[in-house]
Amino acid sequence: MDEAKLTRRGSLAGMAGFLLGLAGWKAAASEGAGPAGVASGAVSCVLTPEQTEGPYYIAGEKYRRDVTEGRSGVPLLLRLRVVDASTCKPIAGAAVDIWHADALGVYSGFGAGRRSRTFMRGIQKTDANGLARFRTVYPGWYQGRTVHIHVKVHVAGNVVHTGQLYFPDSLTDRVFRRRPYSRRPHRTTRNASDFVFANGGRRSMLSVRKSGSSYVGAITMGVNR
Ligand code: FE
Question: 150 C-alpha vs ligand 1 centroid, how far in Å?
Fold first, then answer.
């Protein structure tokens, strides 16, 4: 989530407090920071839900921005921001580790992708603003799962977050009408029927915008360090 959204969220919270009158103001102010603010939803650096790493994680991947290794697909730039969920401050120097299926629904290291252990996998360190950036392609689908990207966040060598990131289904439908995705129509599972998405997926949605011929997917992940 970007700064503009944080600001808008903040001003909405302020307006709600104003409308509630003085008592409301005090409540909003006391809820506005720290864990209470996170719990009340008054601040938007909420703790991002933990979700299973699933069966396809491979540790120790390469530090690199472009994880595609030339595989085809609709270009997707990821802007993944890591903040401390208790202070809302960015965490610099965190290692953000992503992995996902290629456009045809294949993971490197497994099944049809077993000859490589590296495509669509990589690690980037967050900058001073807590931001890690990747260049990849829109993931394909595989049996029984909605479209997703796996993520782990490591701080000082410890895993502080394991999650999955999701896309609006309407956007996925549009992207999947294009090649090479269109070679595999009739994906089985959408967000609403996905058994992992069911537990916190709505708080792990990428905010996606078009940028030229690419999409840019962004999210702020609140973690406990
Ligand atoms: Fe997966």
Answer: 6
